[in-house]
Amino acid sequence: MRRILVVAAMAVAVSVPATGLAGGLEFPGVGAQGAGRAGANLLRVDDALSLHINPANLAITPGVQLSANFNVMFISRCFTPTIEEPINYQNSYFAGRGSELYAPICNDDTPFLIPQVGLSWRVSQRLGLGIGVIAPENTPFGVWGSEVDGRPGIVDGDFPTASVVRGDLIEQNTPLAYLAIGAGYQVHPRLRIGASLGVGMAFIKFSTAASTDLEPALIPGVEVTDDPVENVLTEINAQDYFVPRAQLTIVAEPVDGFEIALNGTWSDDLKSTGDLTVTPFYLQENPQDAVTPDAEIKLTIPRPLQLALGLRYASRDTARGEDGVRSFEKGSNDVGGDALTDEAWDIEFDVQYELNSAVDAFTVDIPEGTTALLGNIEVELPSALELPQNWKNQWSLRLGSDIRVIPDHLALRAGVFYETHGLERGQERFNFQPFQRIGVGAGFTARAGRLDFVFSYLHVHAFRFENDAETAAIEQLYGIYRIGDGDPIDDINGPVFNQGRFETTAHFVGLGINLHLR
Question: Is the pTM of the predicted complex or chain greater than 0.70?
């Protein structure tokens, strides 16, 4: 029996890859300016962050600028199950402590910084360059439940219980950052193009609990039950040190003040390698020791293509010059030539389309014949697993505007956005939630000499989703690979665990400093 439990844990452990890293799951609003406009700054961006948002704008970003932006993210995700079943906690850590398996639970995500730093240099009247380090606007950290007596994934209280969420996610730590270079070139005063190339590094660490009911494998027709007594804690640590990313943008200005942008962003699949650690019976009074097989696993996570269209009108004090740069009177510090100098106001509408349907499944590869040693028992691991995800293409609509209050000194901004649901109904789960959502942002830019200070706030609210017994469709994986020397078992599924109500809210506070070096 111990042999079967360990193999089951290996199979189920891969059910929670770092979905927060996938394209299409980022929040709108890179940088403090972008957050204040709710992401509607594909054309408005006029500092070094053009490198990541719209590299064509590097061609008209004046002088040499150093930008440092830090968005602080606060997110609350809660799940209230609508299933309540008594469970036998005999011989368990929970013996005598309670009888509600499906207790409400919220995540415990610590606020974290999302940095974006860039340097831009307008080399000539037609050419601008940029380099920077960018972290996407996603949720790299998350903890569901508490750790009680060294056991994670617990709903703490007078009667601690094992949360249903533990079957999908207990903890994740999945930071990703890109080092990118880019260039913008003005082909004509009314046409510019730009491209950027980046290489990212991803570090994946997450844990989940696997259910390992044996009866369905031994008795045909018996349903799998989620008994904490039989749970196995599984943890993955993996890395991908080479994640290519490319972006191409074309911007046209058919008439003075009115601009159109087309943007495409491609990211390679995440292909991480690492280790898997298993702790059998971790909720019992005396759990077994953790086991780490001497083999490297590989996670492959598809990342979809992103396409965007931007439309912007700006009321300018003067038309752009022959070189395509905004005309301006040089101040004492020579920091003019941007929207704060010569634009009274602007309004921008962006549409983004994420081809999320490419994310149909995650795959895990384990070297053929890999075994793990538990005590004096050697067990075999499955060689390949495919985890269906059933994502769907997603639209994002964004509207934003700046109003200059004091020329060369102060501008106010605001924006709103709406995103469609990025999952097939009934496929909602806990690791990352590309749900239908809306957001509103506001902020300002204040200039003092060569320094621009940017502050913004963005509120994001996901529509509440509740799955009943008919719509809930995420089944707990049944991880038993084989019994003894028999054939693999692949036609048994566990119970549905996402029946209930999802509620998600996020807040961003953006802080930015832009230094005009020349």
Answer: yes
